[in-house]
Design brief:
Radius of gyration: 22 Å
Largest sheet: 9 strands, mixed
Distance between the termini: 60 Å
């Protein structure tokens, strides 16, 4: 991370000429402006900048959508403010002469925009701090690499693309060597941008890989996740290829985003473990996550495609169970003593990290505040457990649970619940209106 003075020095030396001011939108993407570095230091550093408030009221295609309280034709599509969070200022090694800083989204009077993803997470972390606790998180993003550029993939309508590996390279050192120039560029680029890479490994789908980063506090992890996801696409484009974080890009294994989660007290001491077992707080956390995962589904799985991952025997969970080192359960307990943590296996690579982590914190607080009792650990194959509650199988189902959820209203507020319910409905309506390739193949001639 850089301070403002470090940035000023590099600007004066001619090393930096551009500062990206970025907010995170509903889809978890970085949106914003490229600013002349001197202008950023002279003006934006002190006063912030403005952006059209439609950035929190559009679909994935950037189409303005009616029905949002924060923005619309009746409100004139005015501005909100982007306030730089200087704790996030960093270089962007893969772009010449460029630094990046993330922004908090506020109204022009300085009050927070409650529906902005970074604010949704901040609010839950503030609630957690009221209990003397802090959340530590790690996200594990998978992606699939294709040999075609993004432009070529678009011309091909994303059909018949060539995966970077022609066979399953899960843990294969030989197979991943072919993609190592790209993986190395991503790891080194992220390290230069202040992230802490741990490892890279192959995965099961053709051309599928994962890069893991160090476990840290929740807000930093969410920030790093968004920067990594954005930067990995830019670096892939520089290498003449493309990669996707779609939850289910084809009929093979989907892209997961397993989220590791634990709580610490104000002095940084873990509170979920009692020796190698769960503490009472740890039990309440897991019980709260089990109780709320289905109702918070639109935050864990926000898109139509998200739900295609949930296939029996696919290493994506369908049963709301917890187990010790059991990958068939939605909640997998891993580690021991101070490293004890829960891995939430429901989110896919398309997840907005701020919203998913906020859901984890809210679920944990639900368990703590209601003093919930944890069911026994599940042993065996949870996919075939017919008595288990299930993760919603469609976005439509998840939306109905979200709208009716008392824990969601209590934790996030009616304004946030309504905002993300509308986002889910927009996604559902767009899909309902689409004519898919599957329909054409089945019905063009034969029906």
């Amino acid at each position: 991370m850089w301070s403002a003075e470090q940035l000023r020095t590099r600007v004066e030396l001619g090393e930096i000429d551009t500062v990206i001011l970025a907010m995170v939108d509903m889809q978890g993407r970085l949106q914003g402006k490229r600013l002349h570095a001197k202008y950023f230091l002279d003006e934006v550093l002190r006063h912030g900048s403005e952006a059209c408030n439609y950035l929190l009221a559009v679909d994935v295609e950037m189409t303005p959508v009616p029905g949002y309280a924060v923005s619309g034709w009746e409100r004139g599509y005015g501005d909100f403010a982007l306030k730089p969070d200087m704790r996030t200022l960093r270089p962007v090694p893969w772009l010449p002469g460029t630094a990046l800083v993330l922004a908090d989204v506020t109204w022009l009077d300085g009050t927070p925009v409650n529906q902005s993803p970074r604010q949704v997470l901040r609010r839950q972390l503030d609630r957690l701090a009221g209990h003397g606790l802090q959340a530590f998180v790690g996200t594990e993003l998978e992606f699939v690499v294709f040999e075609e550029t993004y432009e070529a993939a678009q011309r091909m309508r994303y059909q018949g693309l060539t995966p970077a590996n022609g066979y399953n390279v899960d843990y294969s050192l030989l197979g991943t060597t072919r993609v190592e120039p790209l993986l190395r560029a991503i790891r080194l680029g992220m390290a230069g941008a202040g992230l802490e890479p741990e490892s890279a490994k192959g995965e099961c789908n053709l051309g599928q890989h994962e890069i893991a980063f160090r476990y840290t506090d929740a807000l930093t992890t969410a920030d790093n996740h968004s920067i990594y996801k954005h930067g990995a696409k830019e670096i892939a484009a520089e290498h003449g290829c493309s990669l996707t974080f779609m939850a289910k890009p084809n009929e093979r294994e989907g892209n997961s985003c397993h989220i590791h989660f634990s709580l610490r007290d104000g002095d940084g001491r873990p509170v979920m473990a009692s020796g190698s077992a769960l503490s009472r707080v740890g039990e309440q956390v897991l019980a709260g996550l089990l109780a709320t995962t289905a109702e918070f589904g639109v935050l864990y799985a926000p898109n139509i495609n998200s739900y295609k991952r949930y296939q029996p025997g696919s290493f994506a969970p369908t049963a709301l169970r917890w187990g010790r080192d059991n990958r068939t359960c939605a909640l997998r307990l891993v580690g021991h003593d101070s490293s004890l943590r829960v891995e939430h296996r429901a989110p896919g690579g398309d997840v907005n990290p701020y919203l998913a982590i906020a859901a984890l914190v809210a679920g944990a607080l639900h368990g703590i505040e209601k003093e919930l009792t944890l069911e026994p650990a599940f042993e065996g194959n949870a996919y075939v457990d017919t008595s288990a509650r299930r993760i919603p199988s469609t976005l439509r189902h998840a939306l109905s649970l979200w709208r009716a959820s008392e824990p969601a209203s209590a934790a996030f507020g009616e304004d946030v619940v309504a905002h993300y319910a509308h986002a889910a409905q927009v996604e559902i309506s767009a899909f309902d209106a689409a004519v898919t390739d599957w329909e054409l193949i089945r019905g063009f001639e034969r029906l």
